[in-house]
Amino acid sequence: MAVAGIALHPAVAAVSDHTVQGLTPAGTTTDLFDYWLSNRNSNDNTDPGDPANYGINQGKQLIFTSSGYGAEGGNLGSAAPNTASINSWTGKSTSNVGGPYQGIVNANLGDDGYPTLASGNYYKGNRSQNNPVRYLNTDTSVQTGNQSLNYLFNTESGTAKKAYSNVKGLMQLNDDGYYYYDSQRNFASFSADASDSTGSFTLYDKPAVNSSNSVADQQSGQFFPFNTADQVFQERNGQLTSDASSTDADIRHLFGMHSKSTFVQPVNGMVNDNRAMTYEFSGDDDVWVYIDGVLVGDVGGIHDRLTLSIDFSTGRVQVKDGASYRNANNPHTYIDTTLKAAFTAAGKAGETSFRGNTFADGTYHTLDFFYLERGAGNSNMKLMYNLVQPPTSDIIKVDQGGDPVAGAQFALYSTGADFSTANRQPLATGVTAMDTDGTSKLVLRDASGTVIDFDKRYGNDSSADKANSTYYVLRETSAPAGYSRMLNDMQLKYVTPSRTSSGVKSGTLVSWPTADSKDSPVWKTGGVAKSKESIVAESSFTTADAGSPCVNDCTTKDVVESGRQLFAVVLKYDGTGDVNDRNNWRAVTGNMLDGWTQADGAGRESVVNALKGMTPDELKAHTFSLQSSGKYEMQFDDLPGYVSDYYYMLADKTKAKYRMEVYYSDATSVNGLTANNIFPVETDGFTRAFSSRFYVPNIKNELFVQKVDDAGNTLSGVPFDLYKADQVDVTEAADGTVSVTPKSGVSDPYDTVTTGDQWVNDGKNTTPNLAGANMFPSDLAKAPLTNGTYYLVERAAPAGYVKNAKATKVIVNDSGIYANAGVKGDGIKVIRGVGQLVSTMSTFGSTGSTDDTLRYVKTFPGTITEAQIGAGQQGGLAALHPAAAGTDGKVIINDTASTNPLSLMYGGRGAALQYGPLAQGGDYLFAGDEGWPVIRTSQDARPAGQTADERTELDKSTTGADGQGLSALVTGTVTVQVTNDREAPKVTLTNAIKVRKTVEGRAAAGDFTFTLQPTAPTTADGIDGLTDGKTAVSVSKDDLAASGASKTVTFGDLTFTVPAGSPDTYTKDYTFTITENDADKAPAGWGYDRSAYEVTVHVAKNADSGKWEAAVTSFTQTKDFGGNAIAAADRTQKTDHTADFTNRYATVSSLPLTGGDATGRLWMIVGGGLAAAALAAGFGLTEYRRRKGAMA
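== PA14 domain-containing protein ==
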């Protein structure tokens, strides 16, 4: 160990173009851990104080330290002190110390599956007088106890620890079939993914980080996964170089790793080319290797490089010196034992079978590799193995469109033939997660993390009926947020072939009953059990045809390495002729989710056409290549059809529908293949192994909303809000309609979308062809539609339309989405469709598929109550309106409701990957305008003249309530269609009606007000600009400050509403009266004008402009100055649209006794003496005024 360091060099160039591809061996999982003392990002090349008091060390006995904790020297060398600590450097082997510190951990894993510290070792350090900074004196008063190391190796992050589970990409595969990582060849840098709970390694084409001069073991190329390439590399002349030192301050020490691998012991412990199966490690610090829970490789301690080798052909286990200062020709051996001896010492020899000192052939085992870097100096690691991996069974989780779905939880149960899980604990549990191959996957492992081997379970089952190893149930226990859970269980049965070729007998799980039975769980779940097959070639083989190139043996290695072709292809029997005649078989290509295709031609011509049509990745999956076992193998992860129908599995070959055939060709490229140069291979000596893959769909909860106007035309740009029930207060009106108001403190809805035309001809075959629409959730990660109650509301109407204020209640549960159409006439409809087949079922419906079980369906209309939804019931038959969406995205809904079902076809008439009408232009949707509309779908009979190779007859429905429903197999679509009524058109008359006020005789005595109000039969309805049914204007006396002064004012704008939906021929006349207010209350000496005017406004659409217009078409005086009516014949039009009012003031002297003007003021002055004369002269006064024009 070193105590000194220098600053880490700065990165000077990008290094990302210097990477190599990392691999993740099947059957192996790796967890990575970062530890720290002070904080995660602080330098760890010096201790912050007494290391036992900090970070990951607190309260623990296994200590991470930069400078040691207790006496150095280890416990194996001849000069090893008897007080050495497990937490200090074991020393240099050339000084008769060094090597591993043996016995730090117990010989058996703890009950929790993790190592435990052995009792009786020294672990605590004290400061020395000679070196008060370091704790290199051992405190012999305390010793270790059986403390579990689960705090270091479990996958929970915690105090001073960050865990990354199931990390990928550390290993490579060499030409001899060994998986390896070597820090002296490739620097490895780890990067976490977005979840920060897993991630992958990036491997670089050069090593990085050199030993400090202060350490004994000099080496170039070290393992520091939490450092980045830019921290340790420079690029010079296009090559990576590294000046970084292992003791630099920025180097991230203090980490750990745990790998778990499953393997099977091959015959004699040997793999291809007579190589022994081995597991080898070289490096520092602590490494403990357990097999089946027994410590077989003890390389513990803080030490220089050591090597561990396990030879499974002999069972020999050795630990040797591997440091730079060792005797390379004769390294010191510290441990030399055997697997059997290790099991015996642990008291476990009787728990597995042995052949001599190694495992018996065909036995299955689990290897745990625990690794720690506890110091602040070198960190070197080389790992290499060629363990023979048993097949793994896994779950592939997809949504309805075949996209991966992470986060689904599953439980696998072993059951009896009744498939009951009562009183049974799960055999395996887990959660699907994204894999490096782009799938969301869960490898089935037991509670200890061991891959479940169904062959081993079956072989080890000594019961007479083997029921517990034959029958299984796979249950989805929880779906990720926003998805519907698989409600029914997958029932599975383990089946084996009728015969075996060389190697361990292997079987697989199938759905039971199989899909050719109407009672199969396939039709209840949408989950499909498929089989994976690996074929391991013999070291040499022959071809079947006389005169063929390999009739007298070809060596497999020579064939593959020379570029010649050895491949396997799945063939399907065409149903005619002899099943043993290869010309009656056709090659099949494709995959489970995208469907299968039969190649053109027959026999070998079909095989050639299939191979030439494959992508490079598809071709790779069909080709034999070198694997980690050292053997040449083809691994096919997606067998079409059902394995129980394969030629290899059946005793009665005449019942075979599929076969896997191996071919050889001396062509060196696929393009060179012809029907005349490919030859079937005799595969009796090839080893076939099977495992299972379960495709399980989750239907993503999706709610569509469409906005239309009162004519059914789609509207884009309309925002809709979705609220959770606990976000709003709900009000139900007397007519049954519902509205909602956000609760206090709720500022934002749960989710928002805006309608658009994105689903019209968008090129996506799995989305509805709707315009003026959008879909919830807008973002699955942020607002998934989880189980619960929601309310959908229109936020704002588009210009020219009236907002629909009604809310739509939506319920989401495990069985799907339900939407309430409210009451008739509320502008809300719910449109239901069958949608698409879930991706796992597409092979049963797609055009061109050999099986048409689900190609033709019948869907019935119905309704359901809210109580039935809550109880998981299906509702009943009810009349709904048949409908269809056109290519323009507009939904055409029939006026007449019907209970008659619709017959549909998958991909029917323009529906692509949706169920559509059998006939062009037919209906394929149902719409309801009240309550909770639903549909129920079942299998339909084939139309006349239609045929297919295969079909399972399901129970069909005649009433909608009987037969086998297909709700688990089809997505269903739920669209809420919200109608906006158009706003009534409005037309404005701007400042067109005026009043002119004039005073004569003197300045105005006060202000004047004039009123415009509708004249019967005209009312104020539909007129904007009136207050209390009228409008008024005023003229200030300041504007009439002298005799003869005049002032004109306008009544302002009047806006008229045209009734919504009015035809272009609509017209209307509005009549108004204009008068002066308080004209009968004139002050003394004044005569106020009591005239009245009538105005007619005509509203009509301008034929030229297409716009509604309002215009004054009549403006006449209807009363004179004195308020007397003017005969209609005497009225004249005022073209200036101005009502004139003139008030006059008269003096006393101007009033004659017999005629002449007189005013109220005069009469008041003369008093009673003139009263009689005034009365007598009244008639004459009126006539005089008429003559003078005062009442004109």
